[in-house]
Amino acid sequence: MSISRLIHFAGNTVRFSADHERLLAAVDMHFKNCLGEDGPIISEYKITTLGETDFSVSLNGSDLFSKINFDQLLWHLMQDSITQLNGTSTTELIFHAAALAHDDNGLILCGQSGSGKSSLTAWLAANGLQYLTDEVIALPIHGGEISGFCRSIILKRGSAFIWQRWLADTTSDGFLQFNDGTAWIAPTLLNASAVRGGVRPRVIIFPRYIAGAEFQTQRLTSAETLFQLLQCLVNARNFPDHGMSAAKQLARQVSAFRLTYSDIETATQWIKQTTAE
Amino acid sequence: MIVPTPVDGFQIETLDGEIVLLHPTRNIIIHSNQTGALIWLLCDGARTTDEITEILSAAYPEASAEIRADVPAVIQTLASRGALESK
Q1: Alpha helices in A7-140 (DSSP H)
Q2: Does pTM top 0.90 for this prediction?
Q3: H/E element, A244
């Protein structure tokens, strides 16, 4: 019998329907903090089990995959559901960014893939900051608190040192490692009180990991911050002004820095000090 | 004689004297510092590069040498990024 799971973000919802217990358990674990309905259901994924290891997937009634394995299915659901939810929101600006909270101070880590934001996010969560997301944040068009797509933290193989350092038990259901070395980590494995729903943004950091680089920070002007933010804005086309006014308001209200680092511990200490001020 | 002219379709936001230019359909985003913002604002499609240089040099005579270097450089940068065209 098919069972549904609803996943929400930024005022929209997607539905997964499946009859595979292990899949549903993985969804429950790694989408734990985004489960439930919040806004209209914009996409429906129907997953059918084929034999013991393969699946077919349809999206909104159209066949998508005729045969994929469990790992491919999980990755697809994770990536495609985020894309669907990101592109639809007309009430919130969606930025490709990670976010955490240090007490009541919201920290945004904004950067493209490879900038080190997921590694920093995991390390900061393990060091006491509360986790909102490692992938996308939502900011209401009229300002206010940011929220995050609060999935499990995804670390690539090159960041294995993080879970090797901070996870005592990698046999937990909250830790899922794929054949390519990528790991999905439930944030509560890093910090029991790690998860947070929303927070006022106070600091934005644009991190850049460069092996062997000296630790450097540079305070950004509001215009430089806006310039950087616009490059991380995912759903600009949904707004008449392309999100400029809301992004400008955000740029004005935060302290923003460019951060170049190679040592994650040094970067973490500086970030914690900066967000506490 | 070069007359730098703003390309149509850019949204402009000014923050503390600096500017951010966004061309949504061509997916161009440009940031200019205060000097660049000033030069951009003087590019009205009528003034030549030399005239813009003269205006700024008269207004800031102590920085005349820098202005003579900056104006063509900034105009060249804005043009290479698609925000200005020559007429």
Answers
A1: 21-30, 70-88, 117-126
A2: yes
A3: helix A244-253
What CA–CA distance (Å, rounded) separates A5 from A34?
Answer: 10
Q: What is the pLDDT of residues A133-151, one digit of tens each?
A: 999 999 999 999 999 999 9
In what helix (H) or strand (E) does residue A217 lie, and over which residues does it extend? strand A216-219
Mean pLDDT of B17-35: 95
pLDDT of residue A137: 97
Q: What one-letter code names the amino acid at A185? A: I
- Calpha distance A160→B87 (Å, rounded): 56
H or E element in which residue A227 lies = helix A222-232
Which residue on chain A is closest to B29 by alpha carbon?
Answer: A227
Contacting residues for B57 by C-beta, under 8 A, at least 6 apart: B63, B64, B67, B68
Question: CB-based contact (8 Å) between A29 and chain B?
Answer: no
Top residue of A221, A238, A249 to mutate, by most chain B CBs within 10 Å, is: A221
Q: Which chain B residue shows the shortest CA-CA distance from A252?
A: B15
For chain A, percent of residues with pLDDT exceeding 90: 86
What distance in Å separates the CA atoms of residue B5 and residue B8, rounded to the nearest whole number? 9
Q: Do the Cβ atoms of A262 and A215 come closer than 8 Å?
A: yes
Q: Rounded CA gap, A45 and A41, in Å?
A: 11
d(CA A34, CA A30): 9
Q: Look at residue A87 in the predicted model and tell me its pLDDT.
A: 83
Q: Do the chains contact at B18 and A244, CB–CB below 8 Å?
A: no
Q: List chain A residues with CB under 8 Å of B24.
A: 236-237, 242
DSSP 8-state code for residue A215: P
Q: How far apart are the first and last CA of chain A?
A: 53
d(C-alpha A233, C-alpha B76), whole Å: 27
Q: Do B16 and A221 touch (CB under 8 A)?
A: yes
Average of per-residue pLDDT across A206-213: 94
CA neighbor of A207 nearest in space, from A109, A99, A122, A95: A109
Q: What is the CA radius of gyration of chain A?
A: 19
**Whether the Cβ atoms of residue A243 and residue A230 lie closer than 8 Å to each other:** yes
